[in-house]
Amino acid sequence: MREFVKVVDVAASPERAWEVLAEFSRWPEWTASMTRLTPLDAGPPGVGSRVRVEQPKLRPIVLEIVSWEPGRGFAWRGRQPGVTVFADHRLAPTPGGCRMTLSLRYGGLLGSVVGLLARRLTERYMAMEAEGLKRRSEGRG
Question: Whole-prediction pTM value?
Answer without folding.
Answer: 0.91
